[in-house]
Amino acid sequence: MKSKTEYTSLDDEQIVSIVDTNLRRSIGYYDSELSRERRKVMDYYSAKLPRPAHDGNSKYVSQDVFNAVESMKAALLETFSTGNKTLRFAPQNMDDVPMAEVCTEYTDYVLHRQNNLFEVMQTVIHDGLIARAGIAKVYWCMQEESNLEYVEDLTEEELDALLSEDNVEIEEIKEDAYGLFTGELRVTRDTSQVKVEAVAPEEFLIEPQCKSLDSASFLAHRTKKSISELIEMGYDEDLVADISDNEDTDFDSDPEILARFDDIGADRGFNAKGYQRQSRQITVVEAYIEIDVEGTGKTDLYRVVKASNVLLEKEIVNQRPFCAFVPLPIPHAFHGNNFGEKLLAIQNARTVLTRSILDHAMVTNNPRYTVVKGGLTNPRELIDNRVGGIVNVTRPDAINPMPQASLNPFVYQTIQMLDEDKEDTSGVSRLSQGLSKDAVSKQNSAAMVEQLATMSQQRQKIIARNFANNFLKPLFSMVYKLVVENESEEKIVELAGRYVPINPSQWADKRDVQVEFHLGYGDQENMVAKYLSFHSMFSADPTLGQMYSQENKFKMLGTVLEKSGIKNVADFLTDPAQIPPPPPDPAQEMQMQMAQKQLELQERQTSMAEMKAQMDGQIKQMKLQLDQMKAENNFAIQSDKIDLQESQFEHKEYVNLEELEIARTADDVRAIASPNG
């Protein structure tokens, strides 16, 4: 019988060793092929390359990489930073619509107000275009804020009430002769919140042949932290003290970091080891790795924090806190193509051709001369090319300009061809940037120009959709999840111009995210024009009165303002549900009173008719009884006749009174209808 496989658990030293092994073989490690590529593209972006072939040649550098990267970055930032709500939570049903809007507004609040999302997007887009992938980290940051607050003339009961709070401590309190307390209290408030940070390319490491972030069995974030920072983060001081000075020094001298600060002459590799121990910078690695720590035979996703050979923290987590933007993805691979690297050859060719034009112009404007030997009195006079200067010669043909070859006419055609190639490669055209004069000079219609601009934006739209679906959408979901898991107290927050009480702990665990965006360069304006056209058409059609209600108009015009870049719609439009009913119209109120009087008159007439019919029936019955009794007793008949007459008299009086009351009511109605007589 085959024995069951036995698995062994891992101690801290073994965990650190496994993390170190994965670090050394990960993509993006010190001076890897990817690192060298990113450094090269960065030099081209900064116009440091290509260098002149010979000394004395033109040092001009065509900035094709810079222009393409910045144009694409501007288009994406314009699309996702104009105040439009690109991402929304989809409601689960009709009743969930208000809650879905609140969740959307608050998640947007966390991203834009608590975190500078514009700066994060700018950095991530930039890294994605020149480093293959832009990375953002999303996590819950535990932090608190401590402030001194001055109090004056507090009674003992008031002071005790304040000190009963867990976050209040006495800093300095004095009691006066009247038993009142004055001084300072230290109030500590929990300011924990969601943090969204952009991660530098050289700080992010991932396993080779990884297909996506979610499927990565190893990825890591390495940063520099001081001893003091680690202690403030809650790590044991004795544990931090055991960190070796001989820890990984590659990160200090990483060529990517040095290249980033090369222009300002900063020595990024400086480490304050000899200054103060608490200021000493060390490399801290936060790794997410799938390992079997307990020896159960099943791996779990662990968050492991280590510095040098010391394990600072390990815990099981349910997700990797990273979002990635890959502009040019490759199927079945995490890292895509490098957007900037695709333009290196074009920048080289344009630089060489433009330098040849400049060098030729320099030679043409400052030509060389052939001089007959002995034909110059002072050769230095010819070398000193002063304006209006004199050159003394001994014979008329002593000086002749040296023939110069003309510039090849294909140079300009080649540069134009390279411009077209750059547009095809990058997807950034002069037309989409509004720089093309041909579209207008050829007298194209506005619709034709719009169509040409739309066609030129196809590559940009693909990259923008990639950014929205593969970066912003998971970012939105991760922020929402962290808010639901960690914010448990109810609070009042300003959302969309109104103050709303929220308690994220009571929200649904997961929500579906809808993506809707429009690329710049007139796309937004076209959508606004369409919405306004629909609004005008619906408002002008009387048959749509009930279908196009005030609530529908509010939503339509609110959408117009949002797509126009106006964030606070409530400052310009008021929700119909919050508008009080208008005061009653006097004429309308008079008509209502008249109608009420007429209704009362009709009711009285109906009641009198019923009563009259009832009395007539009673009289007929009494006549019948009288005829029957007439044969029996004449005296009784006479008596009944008298009674009958009395009854008829009373009935007649009652009828007269009712008719008089009806006449009075009719006069009241006529008085209301004609108040002026």
* Beta-strand percentage range: 15-25%
Total count of strands: 17
Tell me about the largest β-sheet: 5 strands, antiparallel
Uncertain residue ranges: 434-449
The gross shape turns out to be elongated
Task: Determine Rg (CA atoms, Å).
Answer: 44 Å
The helicity comes to 40-55%
- Biggest sheet, spatial arrangement of strands: 7-8-9-10-11
Tally of helical segments: 19
N/C terminus separation: 117 Å
Mean pLDDT: 83
From the helix content, strand content and strand pairing, which structural class follows? alpha+beta
Gist of the model:
Helix content is 45%, strand content 16%. The chain is of the alpha+beta class and 677 residues long.
Task: Describe the secondary-structure layout.
Blueprint (H helix, E strand, L loop, with lengths): L11 H13 L8 H13 L18 H17 L6 E3 L7 H18 L2 H15 L2 E8 L2 E11 L1 H8 L4 E8 L5 E10 L2 E7 L4 E3 L11 E9 H6 L4 H5 L13 H6 L20 E11 L8 E8 L2 E7 L5 E4 L18 H22 L3 E3 L8 H4 L15 E3 L8 H17 L11 H4 L4 H11 L1 H29 L4 E5 L2 E5 L10 E3 L7 H18 L9 H14 L22 H45 L3 H40 L4
Antiparallel strand pairs: 1-17, 2-6, 2-12, 3-5, 4-5, 7-8, 8-9, 9-10, 10-11, 13-14, 15-16
Note the main attributes of this structure.
19 helices; elongated; alpha+beta; single chain; 45% helix; three-stranded antiparallel sheet; five-stranded antiparallel sheet; 677 residues
